[in-house]
Amino acid sequence: MQRAKIQGKNKSSKLGVVIVAAGTSQRMAGINKLFAPLRGKPLLAWSVDTCQKYGLVQQIVLVLNDKDLARGQKLKKERGWSKVTLCQGGARRQDSVREGLRHMRGCDWVMIHDGARPFLTSDLIEDGLKIVGDTRAAVAAVPVKDTIKLVDSKNLIEETLQRDRLWAAQTPQIFSFDMITRAYENLAADATDDATVVERLGYKVQLYMGDYKNIKVTTLEDLALARIISREWKEIN
């Protein structure tokens, strides 16, 4: 049972989730990563199961590409996802998020999560909810471990960035519904994550500690790592 509430907000605040999973697995050598098996269940099911079980989540909008919608509907029925609504995504991630937001009904807060990040936990959700009431925008992230080089178009180093100020953004990313919908309505350029969209409107975004195991499966190497993590995984929901 989850006892967390959104800090500084009424207990009745409603949390909706958009799970973005409309990609085409272009870097997976023909494997549909969303339905690749991880310890006996599809990769996509890991994060959706976590949100389905999390008590404060009122609605889940699962955004898929047109080729995966039928398979997604079948998975919804098999796994008893009573909170899930499916919708078709767009050409870019930001188009898919915008479409997912259009299907949100009566939510005060929205959590956006990548369907290709299977290792979402209740703790990651709860930690975000504890701080999101202050800035209305909370993003899971981890400090980078490598030295990061800024290069020019010829891959010549222009600058070595100060590592102790660099964080790698993850999902979940949690926002007030009004903020994130306004940001996407005013989006005029490409954005690779949701925090960028609200930053462009001048909003402050608070980072909180994510999890190094919260990987995004993009390549075959990532899938191999996910299978290793899944063998040792204990779901805490």
Describe this structure in words.
31% of the residues lie in helices and 24% in strands. The model has no long low-confidence stretch (mean pLDDT 91). The protein is globular, with a radius of gyration of 18 Å. The protein is of the alpha/beta class. The termini are close together.
Key terms for this structure?
237 residues, alpha/beta, two-stranded antiparallel sheet, 11 strands, 31% helix, globular
Write the layout of secondary structure elements.
Blueprint: E1 15-21, E2 37-38, E3 41-42, H1 43-53, E4 57-64, H2 69-79, E5 84-88, H3 93-102, E6 109-114, H4 122-135, E7 137-143, E8 149-151, E9 157-160, E10 167-176, H5 177-185, H6 194-199, E11 206-209, H7 220-231
Parallel strand pairs: 1-4, 1-6, 4-5, 7-11
Antiparallel strand pairs: 2-3, 6-10, 7-10, 8-9
Q: What's this model, at a glance?
A:
The chain has 237 residues and is α/β, with parallel strands linked by helices. It has seven helices and eleven strands.
